[in-house]
Automatic annotation (TrEMBL):
This is Dihydrolipoyllysine-residue succinyltransferase component of 2-oxoglutarate dehydrogenase complex. InterPro entries: 2-oxoacid_dehydrogenase, 2-oxoacid_DH_actylTfrase, Biotin_lipoyl, CAT-like_dom_sf, E3-bd_dom_sf, PSBD, Single_hybrid_motif, SucB. GO terms for molecular function: dihydrolipoyllysine-residue succinyltransferase activity. PROSITE patterns: BIOTINYL_LIPOYL (PS50968), PSBD (PS51826). It holds the Pfam family 2-oxoacid_dh. It comes from Sedimentitalea nanhaiensis. Residues 184-214, 251-274 are annotated as: Disordered. It catalyses: N(6)-[(R)-dihydrolipoyl]-L-lysyl-[protein] + succinyl-CoA = N(6)-[(R)-S(8)-succinyldihydrolipoyl]-L-lysyl-[protein] + CoA. Its cofactor is (R)-lipoate.
Length: 504
């Protein structure tokens, strides 16, 4: 009996993926739910498990090919998993050595990230020519516009050739290297005394840091010991460096903003010689394109207001210790703003709606996007049905999504389906800004720095902790009255949080 392996659902609005890596080859035995291959979309990696036990038959979609949802990837011959490997005990013992000599070479192909992403950069090779590798052992790492992609060995053997060295840009169908003497993944990796290449910086058992991380550490003036690596085997990624810099106190700040390589050189007379030209990353190109598309598509307008944070700060100060003790998470300001926005969206539903052709789609729920700046760029994880959640649930979800965003571990589904977005530029010290819409949403609220300012209260000048709020909205479906009403309701709820309890 033959079972088909097809492309799984890729998430909302995602219709294509690219076959990145096959971890099995025709004839290999597979178990139910054993990973067969990886597909890459424009944001995440999707693993494809085996739907049945048996042996992998034909691979219909080779590495580098673009496939649609439900497309046929391969076939599995059920019930054949034990026949070939266990036919005779004696031949099975000799099989590894025999196949190592007779098996053809296997190409290591570059994975891509699917729709609209056609290139990747080879960041790090963890093996060199002549090294023994086992099937699924990591060979190299690629950097794309969203994530770092690990490339495992498609078969066991010896790395015979590296066709794409570190720093090279490769397309979706390019070959990275060649493994010779493939032996059905039975080869055990053996450490070599000359493992470390002269040009590579190694540490902790010859684990190499990503080149981008080395450059970032040099620019920030950080030593290797000052950064905790979250990559495989403890290697340092560039986002680890960014976290180390951002978590440093005021004292390390000068080193974190150390001059770039160009200013350290003697200043020549020619201005061009003092410039540094760096290729824009694919992530930055994608961000630039999408933000500009947003401006070109929506009739975007921004309206402002300010909120007195006295009551929220007092409430938070009173209950933060009890809150953290009971719920295991800190009570921040984001849950208050989320609750206030949900309250206001019920009164002004068009801010939570979207345009679909000539229709307006009103959402009777709130999936809140929380914009987060990460070392690799801006991402917007979505907290679904936030209008039904408690303060504690909201704080836990925001903390969890934020950590996954910084670690680059968000899935496609976690960044789709948002109906409204919060953007907290205040954490970076922003006093006032106009956020850009996240299509197809019609509203985004920008939060800013809380700053003590003199305010006239009941005829008296008093100092109050004030925050500017900025609502950017799509004027095609949201009128000025609706936008102002939304901001006023948010302001009222925050200045008197009891209104949230009374639904006023």
């Amino acid at each position: 009996m033959t079972t088909e392996v097809r492309v799984p659902t890729l998430g909302e609005s995602v219709t294509e993926a690219t076959v990145a890596t096959w971890f099995k080859k025709p004839g290999d035995s597979v178990a139910v739910d054993e990973m067969l291959c990886e597909l890459e979309t424009d944001k995440v990696t999707v693993e494809v498990p085996s739907p049945a036990a048996g042996s992998l038959g034909e691979i219909v979609a080779a590495e580098g090919e673009t496939v649609g949802v439900d497309a046929l990837l391969a076939t599995i011959a059920e019930g054949a998993s034990a026949a070939a490997p266990q036919a005779d005990a004696a031949p099975a013992e000799a099989a590894p050595a025999k196949s190592a000599d007779a098996s053809p070479s296997v190409d290591v192909m570059v994975p891509t990230l699917g729709e609209s992403v056609t290139e990747a950069t080879v960041s790090t090779w963890f093996k060199k020519v002549g090294d023994t590798v086992a099937q699924d052992e990591m060979l190299c790492e690629l950097e794309t516009d969203k994530v770092s992609v690990e490339v495992p060995a498609p078969a066991g053997g010896v790395l015979a050739e590296i066709t794409a060295p570190e720093g090279s840009t490769v397309d979706a169908s390019a070959k990275l290297g060649v493994i010779s003497g493939a032996a059905d993944g039975a080869v055990e990796p053996t450490p070599r005394p000359d493992k470390a290449e002269p040009a590579a910086t190694t540490h902790s058992g010859d684990v190499e840091d990503a080149p981008s991380a080395k450059k970032a550490m040099a620019e920030a003036g950080l030593s290797r010991d000052a950064v905790t690596g979250t990559g495989r085997d403890g290697r340092i990624m560039k986002e680890d460096v960014a976290r180390a810099v951002s978590s440093a106190a005021v004292a390390p700040a000068p080193s974190a903003t150390a001059p770039a390589p160009a200013p350290r050189a003697p200043v020549p007379a020619d201005d061009a010689a003092r410039e540094e030209r760096v290729k824009m990353t694919r992530l930055r190109q994608t961000i630039a394109r999408r933000l500009k598309d947003s401006q070109n598509t929506a009739a975007m307008l921004t309206t402002y207001n300010e909120v007195d944070m006295t009551e929220v700060m007092a409430l938070r100060s009173t209950y933060k210790d009890q809150f953290e003790k009971k719920h295991g998470v800190r009570l921040g300001f984001m849950s208050f703003f989320t609750k206030a926005c949900c309250h206001a969206l019920r009164e002004v539903p068009e801010v939570n709606a979207e345009i679909d052709g000539t229709d307006i789609v009103y959402k009777n729920f709130v999936h809140m996007g929380v914009a987060a700046g990460t070392p690799t760029g801006l991402v917007v994880p979505v907290i679904r049905n936030v209008d039904t959640m408690s303060f504690a649930d909201i704080e836990k979800a925001i903390a969890e999504k934020g950590k996954r965003a910084r670690d680059g571990k968000l899935s496609m589904a976690e960044m789709q389906g948002g109906t409204f977005t919060l953007s907290n530029g205040g954490v970076y010290g922003s006093l006032m800004s106009s956020p850009i819409l996240n299509p197809p949403q019609s509203g985004i609220l920008g939060m800013h720095k809380i700053q003590d300012r003199p305010m006239a209260i009941d005829g008296q000048v008093v100092i109050r902790p004030m925050m500017y709020l900025a609502l950017s909205y799509d004027h095609r479906i949201v009128d000025g009255k609706g936008a102002v009403t939304f901001l006023v309701r948010v302001k009222e709820a925050l200045e008197d949080p009891r209104r949230l309890l009374m639904d006023l």
